[in-house]
Amino acid sequence: MNPFVSKSIFVVGIVFWLLVRIPYQQIQKQNIIVEQRKPLQEKLVRLLLLIGILFVPLIYTLSPWLNFANYRLPIWANGLGMMIVALSLWLFWRSHHDLGQNWSSTLQIREGHTLSTNGVYQNIRHPMYASVLLLCIAQALLLSNFIAGLSGFIGFSIAYATRVGQEEQMLLDTFGDEYEAYKQRTKRLIPYLF
Asked: Where exactly are the transmembrane stretches of this chain (predicted)?
């Protein structure tokens, strides 16, 4: 596949990704927050994720600066990347939809917060992280560049390693035995495997 086409598909995917989030950010602004855990580490992790998934790929797509790190992939890899972007977008949207007012971009509990255990949350505790992982895989398949293609994995790996444990602890502190029982019957990231 033409590199311009695969780059364009990734950029369009990112645009749709951002559009999915906008209405939920508006809802989040209306929430009354009863507990928030927003240390400096949280801000740095979110920044690294933005750099890896948004800024570095945009630099690669809009300029020749990173072309020295290009690699070639077979056309089927680009096709697989397109399908994974679509799956990632669906899972990202569905995760937001199923969380509804419980969604937050940071570690916080809102007034009237409930534990989401339906929809995609029925089998997996963190489908939004799974959607980001899928996006990172698509990024590597669509952006044939060692820096731009793999930068998302770096940001995601750091975010996942530092944030998921804190998020689960906050939910355990808030929902106690209900969350513990939910943990026992679901997988953290990939249903039926991990």
From this structure: 6-24, 44-63, 75-93, 132-161
